[in-house]
Write a structure and sequence with these properties.
This protein has 255 residues and is α+β, with helices and mostly antiparallel strands. It is built from six helices and nine strands, in the order αββααβββββββααα. Strands 1, 2, 3, 4, 5, 6, 7, 8 and 9 form a nine-stranded antiparallel β-sheet that branches. The protein starts with 28 loop residues before the first helix and ends with a helix.
Length: 255
């Protein structure tokens, strides 16, 4: 571990330091209900092969919940309501926060440790780049590599009224990927809503360079290292709700 939680002396001496707030609001009621419900049946959670269905009108059987498929894949869904937020704000955020760990900590002050771009670059587009992050999921410390890809690469339709963030999830220490994420941000009557989906483990565990049969051999080992889907659900709900509270003001100041 190379970083630390929270802000220390001098960390707030930036143009955006005033936005750091270690106080976080309680989880929304629908998230608490999903945690009380526990694991869902896999057919009630979107299959990765059907990711394009996320862009159909309406909602799915499970908008917030988690479960496992028979193939050992963990599935997580989280819906976040965001008053006064626009899809463009989130698109900007993903290109802005990754070049300074102090920005990353704004997002989840109780869990985010550090972030940097693997290419060493600064602000700008995030698609095609890899963010190397250190954070806690529950009590588990993790070092992840988040490789952002174009929505079209996943067969996701392009809609200018929404923002769609897609990424391959993997280890920052080993050449192994473990899953995928998609955040769809679509406008609502009073702002926007984010519909997040994660698929981890099972068939998604692969070496970054093709090695015959290696994926099948490493999956049982990687499965022991996967984040708890319940912890991931809580973490996602916390960070998205927290940032949404001040994202409009941050966007007006720095975009």
């Amino acid at each position: 571990m190379t970083g630390y939680l929270g802000y220390r002396a001098g960390d707030a001496d930036t143009a955006w330091g005033e936005f750091f707030d270690s106080r976080m609001s309680p989880l929304p009621g629908h998230v608490v209900d999903a945690l009380h419900h526990g694991a869902q049946a896999a057919p009630l959670l979107l299959d990765f092969d059907g990711v394009a269905e996320l862009f159909d009108e309406g909602y799915h059987a499970t908008e917030t919940g988690y479960g496992w498929s028979r193939a050992g894949e963990a599935r997580v869904a989280v819906r976040t309501d965001m008053f006064g937020v626009t899809p463009a704000m989130w698109d900007w955020w993903f290109g802005w926060h990754g070049s300074d760990g102090r920005r990353y900590k704004l997002w989840h002050p109780r869990a985010h440790v550090s972030a940097r771009w693997a290419d060493g670059g600064g602000d700008g587009s995030y698609i095609g780049r890899t963010s190397l992050v250190e954070e806690y999921l529950g009590s588990a410390f993790t070092r992840a590599a988040i490789r952002f890809v174009a929505p079209e690469d996943l067969g996701v339709p392009v809609d200018v009224s929404t923002a769609t963030v897609c990424a391959r999830l993997g280890s920052a220490d080993l050449p192994v990927d473990i899953g995928w994420l998609v955040h769809q941000v679509r406008p609502t009557g009073n702002g926007a809503e984010m519909r997040s989906r994660f698929w981890l483990g099972g068939p998604h565990v692969q070496f970054r360079r093709p090695i015959p049969l290696a994926g099948r051999l490493i999956r049982p080992i990687a499965g022991l290292q996967l984040p708890d889907p319940r912890d991931l659900l809580v973490h996602c709900a916390q960070e998205m709700n927290h940032l949404a509270g001040f994202l409009p003001a941050l966007y007006r100041r720095f975009s």
